[in-house]
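Reopening closed ticket. The problem is back. First fold of the pair:
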Amino acid sequence: MKSTEANGSPVASKQELCQQIQKLQSEVNDLALRVSGCNGNEYHVIWSNLANARAYLATALEASQHLKEQHLPTLFPER
């Protein structure tokens, strides 16, 4: 998985941000599906980390969609 931070390029638009998060979420879901049938302590740790990643990505996707639609909470003042 490549993140915007890792490859050094800034996100060009709000739409692109949503698309990148959706792509990451899809990749994490695919990994979780592949790991779900495995047994062992190391797989439990991986599964737990993937579950956390899925939750964070869902939150990030929701926030980016609000950003795209300009429905920002008052916590983020307009610049």
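Second fold of the pair, where the issue appears:
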Amino acid sequence: MPAFSIVSIVLLAVWLLLFAVGKHTRREQLIMSLLGIFISPGALLFAATDYRAGEAAGVAFTGFPELLFGFAVFGIAAVLHEHLPHKRQPMELHPKSKLVRPIEHWLARLCVVSGVWLFVAVAGNTIFHLPSVSAFILGGALVGVYVIADRKDLVLEALLSGVFITILIFLIEQFFFVRLYPEAAADFWKIGNLSGLILGGIPVEELLWAAIVGFSVGPLYEFVSGTRPKPFV
């Protein structure tokens, strides 16, 4: 089993825990996880160009562990803020409101948003010669900024998701990858192509990537589906 597969398995365990306890967020978690599967192959192949040294780490970039990683990360990022101990105004779909969108409409919007993310990433890499991870971060940041600019009520969700998914990825990769498989971890990232800033054996770009995924994916379901805060009575 490739060393990095342990990270995917642990993330799946976290995903299953959130799915078990979050009855009201299961639909959101599943949909955003499927989005993760949709994005993962292209994103990981893109990262293989100058970010991750897949062969050295024994990773097949389109293999099951990578799909599982994308599935779990996107699903966790979408609902993690729902389980944090902070006061949050309940959300709902208003049946009589123009804000409600048919499911086929907002699923199409979700695909368009993810396509824009990947397009910006590829354009940034090929046209402006940005490193692949920087281009991916740029694409995600633009998506996240657009979402919260249009829906200012989702700013807190975006920020909390970004912070806590970063902490989660750091802890899991630190304890289940870097410390368990230090040689594989040392060869996993193409450090020579990165900034050289390392935190606990993990490149800072990896943590920035996680932060942007949380920041962008956290509020994305509410944005595309038209879910709004319940009015206070």
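Update: turned out to be a display glitch only; the data is intact. The beta strands are 91-92, 198-199, 202-203, 228-229. The radius of gyration is 18 Å. Please close again.
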